[in-house]
Prior knowledge:
The complex is a heterodimer.
Chain A: H1 6-26, H2 30-54, H3 61-91
Helix pairs in contact in A: 1-2, 2-3
Chain B: H1 4-8, H2 10-28, H3 34-51, E1 59-61, E2 66-68, H4 70-89, H5 91-94, H6 100-119, H7 123-141, H8 148-179, H9 187-190, H10 195-212, H11 219-227, H12 230-255, H13 260-283, H14 288-307, H15 312-343, H16 354-357, H17 359-373, H18 379-392, H19 397-422, H20 437-455, H21 458-466
Amino acid sequence: MNEIGLTHILVISTSLFFIGVYGFLTRRNMITMLMAVELILNSVNINFVAFNKFLYPDKLDGVFFIIFNIAIAAAEAAVAIAIIINLYRSHKSIDISDADEMKY
Amino acid sequence: MNFDFFILMKSELSLLLIIFLLLFLKIWDGIKNPITLLHLTNVLLLINFLFGFILNSHGELFNGMFSTNSSLALEKNILNFGVLIISLQSFDWLKTHKHLLEYYVLLLSTLLGMFYMISSGNFLMFYLGLELASIPLAALVNFDLEKRKSSEAAMKMILSSAFASGVMLFGISILYGTTGSLTFSEMPGLITGRTLQLAALIFIFSGFAFKLSAVPFHFWTADVYEGAPVSVTSFLSVISKAAMVFVFISILMPLFVGNLHLFYIILLVTIVLTILIGNLFAIRQSNIKRFLAFSSIAQVGYVLLGLSAGNSMGVSASIYFLIVYLFSNLAAFGVISLVSVHSGKENIDDYKGFYKTNPVLSWAITIALFSLAGIPPTAGFFGKLFLVTAGASKGNFALIAFAALNMVVSLYYYLRIVKAIFVDVNEDPIPKLKGSLSLNLGLLLCFIGIVITGFTSGLYQYIAQAFNF
């Protein structure tokens, strides 16, 4: 029982996913919310690599997927931070409860 | 030398060519006159649209990563046409804007992403297309850089869209774990209905529902629509939604073939919530863009109702409805864009007495709203009729009755705007507006579309033939 198997890794990645979801829904700072999204994306990456290594060692689909995924996550973060910086210029805050001009 | 590559990917390549041309024009900085640039872009988009009709073939590229056929080419061309109308209608807004070429580069990149998403044969390709379609869109929402509402809307859009794609990706990763494949053509045989696969499908469906702004995932819609510039709002509400429905048809429906009953129940709940919440919230809106946001949420509910039939009739009814919706919604947004650019007014109350000063525009927006509400003989009536007929083929008449009753509710709030325009008196109505030739041309195209598709049946038969698989 000393070997680390697929289950261990899946437990980690699933908890990472739900920590990300929890963080996204509870944090009020935009940068922290962005970090929570990154946690979700990284849990997906762990999932892909683990499935690829343990279940389908002869395929490379999962590994290819995460290479693109990392690049896209970076692009997304870049645009999101640009938008947040622009928002900071007009609102002087990156707290999400200060950006509440539009409501129901 | 093999020309297959160029022929199969021609709609993407022609779009890419336009993007690079505009980018070079920006760097070169030779044409200073924005009017010339706008006309040039519109002509390029028109050529792109006409080019979409010829040289369509079917086949696969890159080991099945990219596939195309005549019905996908038709879907892409619908989007091309929508972008052409939006481009014509943004003329008045862009002619004084100093970043107009960036606007087009971002807009067309988004469209390119949608094309790859529609043609994808693999989850990797689909995800890349999806992100190419949503990241530049967030930048577009923020295009009025100095407006507070615009940046707030863009922030809401990028954060929630990143979250939604994260959730969808988690589903894809579980699906990969249980099937060992990411290719769509291999999927249906590998999905056996194991619990983990059902969880994965629900995750993926949530991502789709978010992008479609179906109800439990609609919270971003109204804020983003209100904050974005009007042209971007019309793009969001028509093109981006239509592209997502096309992908829904070609990707998500085949995935659920093994679990049709579960899929039907999920769709049922989504449809009921979407139509109900969309309608109820549309009643209480005072901003016209917010109002159209909720009305578009309700319309998506009807599209899903047609798709829930799960047969080729439902698919062709949805595509037909999307074309009608494109015409009607773009006509409404064309008028709103003109009013918003020239007077800055976006509230429903500001439209009181609009008929006194602008009779032609009043009729244009009225016909568009009638078509959205589904009053005969406008095209919207037939669009909804076909959708409901297709939905009825499942035999769930309670759902059909619910949808029909909600159409009556929707009539109330569409007529509220018509009443404000024609009946209500206003001390300070919107002054007489004169739009540019391009904008009027865009409105005219929408008007012809609404009337022609309402009076002739040729379009529906053409679509039914193209999607009879």
